[in-house]
C-alpha cells in the first residue's frame, strides 16, 4: 500500500515539474520569438557603416591604423569595429530558394562557434547573426567555445556581455582547460551540445537570411549527410559581404591542401535544379552541419590532430568512404572573413598541417599516400603519433577504400602516375636540366621553367604525359599559342594542350603547331620554349618512369 502511494506521489511531482518546465519553455520561446521578430522587422530600416553588407572605406588616421593592425589581425579590425554587431547583410540567394517550402517540424540546432583569441567584433557579430537569423523554435543553443584565449576582453567582459545581451541563456560560453587547437576545440563543443543537429562555424562569420532551415530540412530527410552552407566572402579589408555564388565544390591537392573547383559536369547533370544540394568530394572545414549522433557514429574527429589543418580532408574522405554524403547547400549562405594569415600562435612552432595530414594519409589514403609524400618528402620519418584508434574506427565502420573514393566521388581527380604514358622528371640528358615549376603558384599562368634535375627530391619536377596527351601537373597543362612560349594553364582539354612524346627519338612535339619542346641554350632557372623540330640534343627528353599501357 505504502509503496504504491510513494510511487503515485513521485508521479505527481514529476508531472508538476513537467508542467512548470513547459510553462517556462513557452515563456522562453515567446521571449525569443519576440526578439527574433523585432530584429526581422527592423532589419530593412537599419542605417550605418557596413549595413546591407556594404564596404567600409576608411580614410586618414583610421585607414593608417587599420593597415597597421592588419599585420597582427590579418584583417581590418578598425573597419570591423565601426560596423554594428547586428548589421544587415544582403540576401544573395538564388531567387529559386524563396519558393522552397520547408517543413514546419524540423530538428533543433546547436551552433558551435570555436575561437582562440578572436577579435571582439567579428566574434560577436558571428553570434548575433546566428541568433538574429535563426527561428527560435529551431535554435536550441549557441555555444561559444573558447579555446583557452588570453585576450583580456574575452574573459569577464565577454561573460558579462553575453549574460546581458542574451538573458534567456541561448548563448553559452564553454572554455577549454588548455589550448586544444581547433580540432579538439570542436570536439569539446560537440560534446557540450545537446541539440539534434550540430553546426560548426568559424568565429568570423555572418549567417544570412534563412541560412538554417535548408540545413535542418536536408538532415531531416537523410541523417547521413554532412552539409556545408555556401560560403560567401566577407572582404578582409572593407568587410563587404559579397555573394560569391554557389558554383564551386571542394577538391584537394595531393599535398593535402584544400582547393575550390567548378562543379563538375557529372554533378551538374545529376542535379535537377540550381537550388538542389551539390555533392562535393571535400569541404573547406570550418562551416558545416551534421546530425549530432551521426557525427559521433562517424568518428567525430581525430583527437590526435593539433591546432590547425588536415581535419577538413579527414572528415571529407571519412564521410564518403564510410557511408555518408557530403553536400553543399546553395540556399544556405554564410559569410566568412578569409584572413591573410593565422592571427594566433602555433605552440612549439610545429607544422601541424603537415603532421595532421600524415595522420590522415596513413589512416585513409591506402597506397595513394605515396602521392602525398611525393610532395612532402620532408615529412618522411617524422613522428605522427598513435593512429591505432583511427585505424580501428575504419575497420569497425567497414569503410570503403580510397580508390573507391577516387573512382566514385572524385573521378576527375588527376593521378600523376596512373593512366599516363610516362611520368616523373622530364630531363634533357645533354644539359641535365629538367622541367621545373620553380615553385611558382600553379593557379596562375606562367611560362614553364627549367632547373638542374633534382633526382626525385623535388615535387616541382614531377610531370606526366597523360593518355589524353596532356603534358601536365596536377591541375595545370603545358600549352603553346604563339611565339616560343610554353605557359602552364588550367587543364581544359584544349587542342593547344596536346603533346606527343616519341620515346625512341626523345622528342616532345606540340600537336597543333608541330613544334618541339626545346632547351634552346637556356640556363637553370630560365624558361623552356618550342622551336621547329630539328633533331638536335636540345630537343631530346626522357621521362623518369614509363608505364606499359
Ligand atoms: O588553436 C586554435 N583554436 C581555435 O579555436 C586555432 C584556431 N581556432 C579557431 C579560430 O579562432 C577560428 O574560429 O578555429 C577557427 C578556424 O581557424 P581559422 O579561421 O584561422 O582557419 P581558416 O579559416 O584559415 O581555415 C580553414 O581550414 C581550417 C583547417 O584546419 C579549418 O577547418 C577552418 O575552420 C577553415 N575555415 C573555413 O572552412 C572557412 C571557409 C574558408 C575556406 C576555404
Ligand atoms: Mn576562418
Automatic annotation (TrEMBL):
SMART domains: RICIN. InterPro entries: GalNAc-T, Glyco_trans_2-like, Nucleotide-diphossugar_trans, Ricin_B-like_lectins, Ricin_B_lectin. It is found in: Golgi apparatus membrane. Residues 422-544 form the Ricin B lectin domain. Keywords: Disulfide bond, Glycosyltransferase, Golgi apparatus, Lectin, Manganese, Membrane, Metal-binding, Signal-anchor, Transferase, Transmembrane, Transmembrane helix. It comes from the Eukaryota. It is an enzyme of class 2 (transferase). It holds the Pfam family Ricin_B_lectin. It is a single-pass type II membrane protein. GO terms for biological process: protein O-linked glycosylation. Pathway: Protein modification; protein glycosylation. One of its GO terms (molecular function) is carbohydrate binding. Its cofactor is Mn(2+). GO terms for cellular component: Golgi membrane. The keyword Metal-binding applies. Its EC number is 2.4.1.-. Belongs to the glycosyltransferase 2 family. GalNAc-T subfamily. This is Polypeptide N-acetylgalactosaminyltransferase. The lineage of its organism: Eukaryota, Metazoa, Spiralia, Lophotrochozoa, Mollusca.
Amino acid at each position: 500500500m505504502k509503496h504504491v502511494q510513494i510511487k503515485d506521489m513521485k508521479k505527481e511531482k514529476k508531472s508538476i515539474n513537467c508542467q512548470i518546465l513547459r510553462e517556462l519553455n513557452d515563456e522562453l520561446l515567446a521571449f525569443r520569438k519576440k526578439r527574433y521578430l523585432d530584429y526581422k522587422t527592423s532589419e530593412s530600416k537599419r542605417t550605418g557603416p557596413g549595413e546591407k553588407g556594404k564596404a567600409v572605406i576608411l580614410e586618414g588616421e583610421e585607414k593608417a591604423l587599420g593597415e597597421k593592425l592588419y599585420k597582427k589581425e590579418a584583417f581590418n579590425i578598425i573597419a570591423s569595429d565601426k560596423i554594428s554587431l547586428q548589421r544587415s547583410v544582403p540576401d544573395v540567394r538564388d531567387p529559386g530558394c524563396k519558393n522552397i517550402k520547408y517543413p514546419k517540424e524540423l530538428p533543433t540546432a546547436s551552433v558551435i562557434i570555436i575561437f582562440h583569441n578572436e577579435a571582439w567584433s567579428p566574434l560577436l557579430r558571428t553570434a548575433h547573426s546566428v541568433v538574429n537569423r535563426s527561428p527560435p523554435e529551431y535554435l536550441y543553443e549557441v555555444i561559444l567555445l573558447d579555446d583557452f584565449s588570453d585576450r583580456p576582453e574575452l574573459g569577464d567582459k565577454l561573460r558579462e556581455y553575453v549574460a546581458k545581451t542574451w538573458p534567456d541563456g541561448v548563448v553559452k560560453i564553454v572554455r577549454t582547460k588548455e589550448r586544444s587547437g581547433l580540432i579538439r576545440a570542436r570536439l569539446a563543443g560537440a560534446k557540450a551540445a545537446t541539440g539534434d543537429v550540430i553546426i560548426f562555424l568559424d568565429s568570423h562569420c555572418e549567417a544570412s537570411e534563412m541560412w538554417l532551415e535548408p540545413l535542418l530540412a536536408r538532415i531531416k530527410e537523410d541523417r547521413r549527410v554532412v552539409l556545408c552552407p555556401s560560403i560567401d566572402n566577407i572582404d578582409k579589408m572593407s568587410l563587404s559581404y559579397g555573394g560569391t555564388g554557389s558554383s564551386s565544390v571542394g577538391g584537394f591537392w595531393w599535398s593535402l591542401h584544400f582547393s575550390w573547383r567548378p562543379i563538375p559536369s557529372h554533378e551538374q547533370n545529376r542535379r535537377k535544379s540550381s537550388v538542389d544540394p551539390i555533392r562535393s568530394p571535400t569541404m573547406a572545414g570550418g562551416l558545416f552541419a551534421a546530425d549530432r549522433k551521426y557525427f559521433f557514429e562517424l568518428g567525430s574527429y581525430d583527437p590526435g590532430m593539433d591546432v590547425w589543418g588536415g581535419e577538413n580532408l579527414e572528415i571529407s574522405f571519412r564521410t564518403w568512404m564510410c557511408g555518408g554524403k557530403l553536400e553543399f547547400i546553395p540556399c544556405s549562405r554564410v559569410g566568412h572573413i578569409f584572413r591573410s594569415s593565422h592571427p594566433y600562435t602555433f605552440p612549439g612552432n610545429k607544422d601541424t598541417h603537415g603532421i595532421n595530414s600524415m595522420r590522415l594519409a596513413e589512416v585513409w589514403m591506402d597506397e595513394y599516400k605515396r602521392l602525398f609524400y611525393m610532395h612532402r618528402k620532408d615529412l618522411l620519418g617524422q613522428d605522427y603519433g598513435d593512429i591505432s584508434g583511427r585505424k580501428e574506427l575504419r575497420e569497425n565502420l567497414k569503410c570503403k577504400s580510397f580508390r573507391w573514393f577516387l573512382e566514385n566521388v572524385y573521378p576527375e581527380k588527376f593521378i600523376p602516375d596512373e593512366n599516363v604514358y610516362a611520368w616523373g622528371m622530364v630531363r634533357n640528358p645533354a644539359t641535365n636540366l629538367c622541367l621545373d615549376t620553380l615553385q611558382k603558384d600553379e593557379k596562375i599562368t606562367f611560362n614553364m621553367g627549367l632547373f638542374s634535375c633534382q633526382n626525385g627530391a623535388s615535387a616541382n619536377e614531377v610531370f606526366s604525359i597523360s593518355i589524353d596527351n596532356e603534358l601536365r601537373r596536377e591541375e595545370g597543362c603545358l600549352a603553346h599559342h604563339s611565339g616560343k612560349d610554353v605557359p602552364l594553364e588550367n587543364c581544359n582539354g584544349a587542342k593547344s594542350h596536346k603533346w606527343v612524346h616519341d620515346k625512341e627519338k626523345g622528342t616532345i612535339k606540340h600537336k597543333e603547331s608541330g613544334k618541339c619542346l626545346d632547351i634552346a641554350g637556356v640556363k637553370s632557372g630560365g624558361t623552356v620554349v618550342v622551336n621547329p623540330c630539328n633533331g638536335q640534343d636540345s630537343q631530346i627528353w626522357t621521362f623518369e618512369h614509363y608505364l606499359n599501357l
